[in-house]
Amino acid sequence: MPTTNKKNTTSTIVAILLLFLMASLMLYRAQLETTIVDESPHIVAGYAYNNLQDYRLNPEHPPLIKMVAALPLSFKNLNFPAEHEAWVSGINAQWELGDQFLHWSGNSPTSITFWSRIGPILITLLVGLLLFVWARKLYGAYAGLFALLLFVFSPNFLAHGPFVTTDVGAVFAFLFATYFFFKYLNKQNTKNLLLAGVAFGIAQLMKFSLILLVPYFTLVAIGWIIFRHRPLKLFSTATVGRIFGYLGKLVLIGIIGLLVIYPVYQYTVSGYPIEKQIEDTSTILESSPYPALANGVVWMADKPVLRAYSQYFLGHLMVFQRVAGGNTVYFNGEVANNAWLSYFPMVFLWKVPTSFLFLITIALLLITIGIYKKTKIALRITKTFYERVKKMGRIIMEWGSEYFIELALFLFVVIYWAASLLGNLNIGLRHVLPTFPFLYIILAGIFHNWIHKKPQFKIQNIFQQLKKIFVGIFAQWLKGLTLAVLVFWYVASSLSVYPHSLAYFNELAGGPKNGHNLVVDSNLDWGQDLYALKNYVQQNNIEKIKIDYFGTASPAYYLGDVYESLNPFDEQQDRTGWIAVSATHLKNGQGTPIRHFPGESGYYNWLEEYEPIKIINHSIFVYYIE
Fold first, then answer.
1. What dihedral angle (degrees, nearest 10) is formed by the CA atoms of 297, 299, 305, 307?
2. Domain of 616?
3. pLDDT at 400
4. Which of 464, 495, 526 is the last residue of a domain?
């Protein structure tokens, strides 16, 4: 068996084992944690799409991830609250109906939540598989395993992989669509054009942020023309003509994508009464900041052929409306309802393993040194400013051609981060997760080239050549050892907080114990630990506990008569005895309000006088006050 085939076979076996391990870790968490904030509306909406063909719930997100998640529920004898007021006359009453479906309709919320998480887990594994296949195709077996290992043991993917949300679905969609777009660029035939279009359509069914593929694919196509076609004249009629040719192909990909979207949306609105769709759409968009677009979407809602697209565009407008409105966020001691420019960079520095930051730093140093050496040698032999500019132009063209894939992947990271930084939603690192696989592939390529860099023999002396060989062997061994140590640290750091992966914070951030002082919400506390609170109450024979819980699981369902609601705004309520407060509510009520924050503030400052008796899994603070 040739060496390459043997490496590929071995790497495939190792990759399967790694993905099996990841699946096991996620499945354990899936049955351990309560329904999180976003899962309740997603689950009930997916069930309604699949079984009632009705899209009145959760239109602000595309249907596919919810339909996949709810598929196992179709084989269970569940009661759907179709007579409940929230379903009959509510306008997108997803939260209330989700609570009814899970807790108060005779169903088992634990069973529903667990089986709904199987689909997202499978999609997460598909991300890992595609990541491995692509990295191996680009750089070889070891690079593929390196990228996959970073993914499998990422605390953030272990945390979000099982959840019924659009986040990891978006990660898959961006990677999937980009892979097939590059496949088309490399071999431009009808088959690959169709595959790129279908992949683009599937991506649009995952999350509305996938619209960023439009400018991204456009810039990549222009870059392909410049760096791969290498036109003799950059600004010429031929170049412009070629650009328009590629833009035409992009339009075809978009059209194919819209055709893929249609049957899925048509299925989900086929049981949705037209009158109800018109009423819901009109009500939701009555305060839209884009009245002309809103009127167009409402007009489409009662047209049998167009109502599927009306629902699709309704979702886009709802996203724009929400992003403009902002969200209450606690960040490093402060609370606001609009974004910090530093939010995502800081959360990234806190919530990825420290060793990953070292890997990025080493990669940046390698790139900087490489650029410096290349330009220094090139510019040394030029004399005039014009010659230097011309020489730099040639170098840039050579780099663009040689490292086109890496530059194009990094372009996605830049575009996505720019959109995130300029947006007005700061509710979790999960929003930039789609960039992670692209970083993993780029790092795999950089370290592959670093490890396999061959020593150059310019000196003829045999002893000097031998010395260079030995130095090269030692340097290669040292490089391998450095990567091995960093990878081991990466894995150990990630697993140190498992199974509470959502609460992961790295050593620079002070670990998970300090996480609540930095950020909360989906970075730490998303309502996942109500089971754990219930167990604590039972183990300590607590007869009554006041709870302010951040989540869509029901404390009344799980704790029964032991539960009493804690209202932080009611100063007349008895504040003695056992009290439990979710970290998100606690820090939102203790943060310093800034930038004319319109909401209530300071309502949990009184709890600063007391030390919690227990902090459950870093996300729920339990007090006993006499």
1. 40
2. 512-625
3. 86
4. 495
